[in-house]
Design goal:
It comes from Kitasatospora cathayae. InterPro entries: NT_sf. This is Nucleotidyltransferase. The protein is α+β, with helices and mostly antiparallel strands. It has two domains: 122 residues, 2-Layer Sandwich (Beta Polymerase, domain 2); 121 residues. Helices cover 55% and strands 10% of the residues. The protein is built from eleven helices and four strands, in the order H-E-H-E-H-E-H-H-E-H-H-H-H-H-H. A four-stranded mixed β-sheet has the order 3-2-1-4. Helix 8 crosses helix 9 and helix 9 packs antiparallel against helix 10. It starts with 25 loop residues before the first helix and ends in a 7-residue tail after the last helix.
Length: 274
């Protein structure tokens, strides 16, 4: 039976836990905790979180990346970003079981703001696992799979389409290693965003939450059978990135373009950010 990711009261349950981190990734998590504390210190760092496949317990050694979010006490500076970049590189090089490290930086005022209540706030409360410091989830509401949540999490797909087209055009000739790497990275970004947006489009009707890309694609397919195969293609590319420009063109110029318009029609557009 597929889990709907809800607690007994019908709210979205936090999906990760340190207890779910597998033995292969436990040393990575321990090192991340120590290095974050050493690099940022309590004067700057309010808290640190894991998110993604590692705290869900589904990470694959050598394939999965390490995703971190740092909640700072004040707005991140260029120096903070530079230190986060050093942290990313150090962890990535030290642990072959992770295929890349990403560190997001936000200040607590932003994470707790009214504007971000149903986007970054929900992300911290439901998709992030506490690693260090105070857990901000205690200062945020509980969340249901509602149209408001759908709008505020993914109601801005149209804004990224021009950037995706520019990146696709910039990777001109397949077969050149650097360009192939750019195409593979773009395909991963595009496909994951499309599948997640397709899922949140139907999330209120599905009445649950999942980060599983296959389950997400099938939940979408049940409501939009005419687009089912394209969404299954997106889920396949999310698992195994491609350098096929024709596939990327279909995903960006057909599926994503349609999805952005349908999303706007069903849920409206995300509140603009400054």
């Amino acid at each position: 039976m597929i889990s709907r990711g809800l607690d007994e009261d019908g709210y979205i349950a936090r999906e990760g836990s340190l207890d779910r981190v597998t033995a292969e990734f436990a040393p990575v998590v321990d090192a991340a905790r120590e290095r974050i504390a050493a690099a940022f210190g309590p004067a700057r760092l309010h808290g640190a979180y894991l998110y993604g496949s590692i705290p869900r317990g589904t990470a694959v050694p050598g394939v999965s990346d390490l995703d971190l979010l740092l909640a700072l006490r004040r707005r991140p500076t260029p120096d903070d970003r530079a230190e986060a970049d050093v942290l990313e590189a150090a962890l990535d090089s030290a642990f072959p079981q992770v295929n890349g490290v990403g560190v997001l930086l936000f200040d607590t005022d932003t994470l707790l703001s009214e504007l971000e209540r149903y986007d970054l706030g929900w992300f911290v409360a439901c998709l992030c696992t506490p690693l260090l410091g105070e857990d901000l989830a205690g200062r945020l509401p509980r969340y249901r799979p509602s149209p408001l949540l759908a709008r505020e999490t993914n109601g801005d797909l149209a804004l990224v389409l021009p950037r995706w087209r520019e990146r696709l055009a910039a990777a001109a000739t397949p077969g050149v290693a650097a360009q192939d790497a750019d195409l593979a990275a773009l395909s991963r970004t595009v496909s994951r965003r499309i599948v997640r947006t397709g899922f949140t489009l139907v999330m209120p009707r599905w009445n649950g939450w999942t980060s599983d890309l296959t389950v997400s694609a099938e939940a979408f397919a049940a409501h939009y059978p005419d687009r089912a195969e394209q969404m299954r293609l997106a889920a396949a590319v999310a698992r195994t990135p491609t350098t096929d420009r024709a596939v990327l063109t279909v995903l960006i110029d057909d599926l994503a373009r349609w999805l952005a318009a349908e999303y706007s029609a069903v849920h409206g557009e995300k509140a603009p950010r400054p």
